[in-house]
Amino acid sequence: MNFHARRFGRAASSYGEHSGVQTGMAESLLSLIPRGREPDPDSLLEFGCGTGILTRMLRARFPAARILATDASERMLAAARLATPGAEIDWQILDAMDGTPAPLPAWAARGFALAASNALVQWFPDLKPHFALAASCLAPRGIYLVSGFTPGNFPELNSLLREPPFAYSSFPGNSEADVAEAAAENGLSVESWSEASATEIFPGPEQFLAAIKAMGSARRPETGKALTRAKLAGLIAAYRERYGVPGGVRATWKSWQACLRKP
Ligand SMILES: C[S@@+](CC[C@H](N)C(=O)[O-])C[C@H]1O[C@@H](n2cnc3c(N)ncnc32)[C@H](O)[C@@H]1O
C-alpha cells in the first residue's frame, strides 16, 4: 500500500469531521453530469471512495444503478461500508495509482457507464497510468468525473515550505495541462474543466495542521528534509504571524474538477 493510502487508513475514523471541502467538491462533480442528453448511467465505478461521501451522493442520484466502490485502504472501505447502511453497493480493494487493470465484476463486463473519483488523484506522481486504468474500465461513451487539488493548493503553507529551513521545491497537485496530457494519451477527451478556491478559517495553525493530518492529507517531507519538532514550531509561529486573521488563521483550498469521456 502506498504512503498516502496508509495515511488515509490511519485517518479513517477522524476523516468525516474534517471533510467539508471534499463534500463541496463531490457536489460540484455531480453537477458536471450531462443532463437530459443521455440515459442515466446504469453501472458506476468509484476510485478512492474513502468514507463514502461521493458514493452516497451517487447512490442517491442514480438509485437504479449498480455501484462498485473501491479504495486502496481496508480501513477506509470498512468506514464507508459502516456509514452507508442498507445501500446495495459492492465494495472492493483497488489501488488505482499504477494502472494495473482491475478485474471487472460480471455485471460490468462491458465496461462502466460512469466512473468517478473525488480528491484522490492529486497524490499520484503520474496521472497517465491511472487514466489508463479508468479508460480500460469505461464502456464506449462512458464518462469519468474526476477532481483533485492544484499544485497551488494551500498557498499559505506552500509559501512557508518554499523558504528555508524547509526549501521544498515541489508540491502535490495537478494542473489543467497535466490532466489534458494524461487524458489525451489514453484516448479520453476533456469535456469540461473548472477550478475552485475556498478559504477556511482555523482557530490556529496547529488546528489547520491537525485537520489535514486527520484527513490523511499531510504532506510527505521531501527526502532528507525531515520535519523536526523545532522546524514544526517555527512553521507554526511563522504561519500565525503571516496568515493570522480575526478568529484564527486562513488556509485556502484550490481544487479542480473535470469530466472526461471515452470515445
Ligand atoms: C482525500 S480521500 C478522498 C476520499 C473520498 N473520495 C472523498 O471525497 O471524501 C482519498 C482516498 O483515496 C484513497 N487512496 C489513496 N491512495 C490510493 C490509491 N493508490 N488507490 C486507491 N485509493 C487510494 C485513500 O485511502 C482515501 O480513502
Structure explained in plain terms:
36% of the residues lie in helices and 24% in strands. Strands 1, 2, 3, 4, 5, 6, 7 and 8 form an 8-stranded mixed β-sheet that branches. The relative contact order is 0.17. The model has no long low-confidence stretch (mean pLDDT 90). The radius of gyration is 19 Å and the shape is elongated. The chain is α/β, with parallel strands linked by helices. The protein has a single domain, classed as 3-Layer(aba) Sandwich (Rossmann fold). The longest helix is centred in the last third of the chain and has 15 residues. The structure holds S-adenosylmethionine. S-adenosylmethionine (SAM) binds next to helix 1, helix 2 and helix 3. The site of S-adenosylmethionine (SAM) has 24 residues, from helix 1, helix 2 and helix 3.
So what's the overall shape?
elongated
Distance between the termini: 32 Å
Derived structural class? alpha/beta
Top CATH class = Alpha Beta
Instruction: Write down the domain tally.
Output: 1
Hey, roughly how much beta strand do the residues contain? 15-25%
What is the arithmetic mean of pLDDT?
90
Number of helices: 9
Looking at this structure, what is the CATH superfamily? Vaccinia Virus protein VP39
Radius of gyration equals 19 Å
Ordered list of secondary-structure elements with their pairings:
Layout: H1 3-11, H2 20-31, E1 43-47, H3 53-61, E2 66-71, H4 74-83, E3 90-93, E4 112-117, H5 127-137, E5 138-149, H6 155-162, H7 176-185, E6 189-202, H8 205-214, H9 229-243, E7 244-245, E8 248-261
Parallel strand pairs: 1-2, 1-4, 2-3, 4-5
Antiparallel strand pairs: 5-8, 6-8, 7-8
Helix pairs in contact: 2-3, 5-7, 6-9
